[in-house]
Design goal:
Number of helices: 8
Structural class: mainly alpha
Largest sheet: none
Number of strands: 0
Shape: globular
Radius of gyration: 23 Å
Distance between the termini: 62 Å
Length: 175
Amino acid sequence: MAGLQQTNSEKILLSWVRQSTRNYPQVNVINFTSSWSDGLAFNALLHSHRPDLFDWNAVASQQSPVQRLDHAFNIARQHLGIEKLLDPEDIATACPDKKSIFMYVTSLFQVLPQQVTMEAIREVEMLPRHSRVTREEHIQVHHQQRFTQEVSCFTFLLLSCCSKVVVSLTYPISL
């Protein structure tokens, strides 16, 4: 599967994130999808480089995932000049979009200190290669596939009905 492969840039970026968030026990970033959905990883990454910007404990313990994500995106916009490219509601799901998160974290990487050790890269290389799909992620993918099939079927039926209407309208009815 193409989604299971990890590029060198992903390894380096993931290594940087893991190294930066190592001192935050609530945060364990292992991918660019579900590891980010609760908002803790974004806030820990910002706090590890700019602890002067906010109180970590207040953010980590009192807010919902959407509030934590909104907080991180607002801090990044106000203090680092990174536009709020992601909607908290889109990230606070079982399996948020990998490319969107990767792009946003890359933006953070460009403005924050970028020191990555070989040890951090080796650690990422030791993470399991297979993607651990949770039951919720499996159900979500199944529902998306089923919905797509149902929409396709509905579209086909709708087009079939419309073509019959068009055909019947083009031929005059003789009485």
